[in-house]
């Protein structure tokens, strides 16, 4: 996992929230599907969604997060694993 400042993490989470259209788990909670606006910075939104799950605290089961643009032109994913962490450096000068 990478180190991010708290400020950087909060900015990425906010960016995702501003650009998400919908998000929901499939029936067995193994895949989280999120749709974002077509004009969103795709990589930034994907990272924001991923970080938001680590920010929520320990989710008990692993899952795959899948982000797709509204028109389906871009798609990407991440793997959430319980016990993995992002390290938020409160004192970062970045």
Notes on the structure:
Helix 1 packs across helix 2 (42-56). The protein is 31% helix and 33% strand. With 94 residues, it is α/β, with parallel strands linked by helices. It starts with a strand and ends in a 5-residue tail after the last strand. The strands form 2 sheets. Strands 2-3-4-5 form a 4-stranded mixed β-sheet. A two-stranded parallel sheet has the order 1-6.
Mean pLDDT: 85
Overall number of strands = 6
Helical content stands at 25-40%
Q: Strands of the largest sheet, in order across it?
A: 2-3-4-5
Strand percent estimate: 25-35%
Low-confidence stretches: 90-94
One letter per element, helices H and strands E, the order comes to: EHEEHEEE
Shape category: globular
Keywords for this entry:
6 strands, single chain, 94 residues, two-stranded parallel sheet, globular, disordered C terminus
Please provide a brief summary of the model:
The protein has helices at 6-19, 42-56; strands at residues 3-5, 20-25, 31-36, 63-69, 75-80, 87-89.
Topology:
Layout: E1 3-5, H1 6-19, E2 20-25, E3 31-36, H2 42-56, E4 63-69, E5 75-80, E6 87-89
Parallel strand pairs: 1-6, 3-4
Antiparallel strand pairs: 2-3, 4-5
Helix pairs in contact: 1-2
